[in-house]
Recover the amino acids of this structure.
């Protein structure tokens, strides 16, 4: 069992499924609101590790879906500034257990990291609607 800080968008059906899977797998969750959390570049950046900059963003966010963000023009600093100004842009959930931080819900990675039930249904980080 791991203690996991889980940053979510309250009311998100995908986040609800993710939390249910983690709890069913025996993990203890400290659930926090990703949208009202006070973020800084120093607190947000570690969640993205070596992922590509585009993978830092929530593909279901209205501005991303509308093509209003020019990923080719973004650097790390400007991407973080955008997400801090508009947290809906952050790919979720954000997860922390111990010193490790992750963004998104890659089920295979999470299973390898903290463990998930072997019979767990597939759960992703894609949302049907924002």
């Amino acid at each position: 069992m791991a203690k996991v800080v889980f940053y979510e968008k309250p009311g998100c059906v995908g986040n609800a499924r993710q939390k249910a899977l983690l709890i069913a797998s025996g993990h203890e969750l400290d659930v926090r609101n990703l949208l009202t959390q006070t973020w800084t570049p120093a607190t947000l950046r570690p969640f993205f590790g070596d992922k590509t900059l585009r993978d830092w963003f929530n593909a279901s966010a209205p501005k991303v879906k509308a093509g209003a963000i020019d990923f080719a023009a973004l650097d790390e600093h400007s991407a973080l500034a955008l997400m801090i100004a508009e947290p809906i842009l952050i790919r979720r959930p954000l997860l922390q257990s111990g010193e490790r931080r992750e963004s998104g819900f890659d089920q295979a990675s999470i299973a390898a990291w903290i463990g998930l039930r072997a019979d767990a249904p597939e759960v992703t980080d894609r949302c049907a609607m924002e």
Summary: DSSP finds five helices and four strands in the chain. The longest helix spans residues 13-24. The chain has a mean pLDDT of 94. The two ends are 31 Å apart (CA to CA).
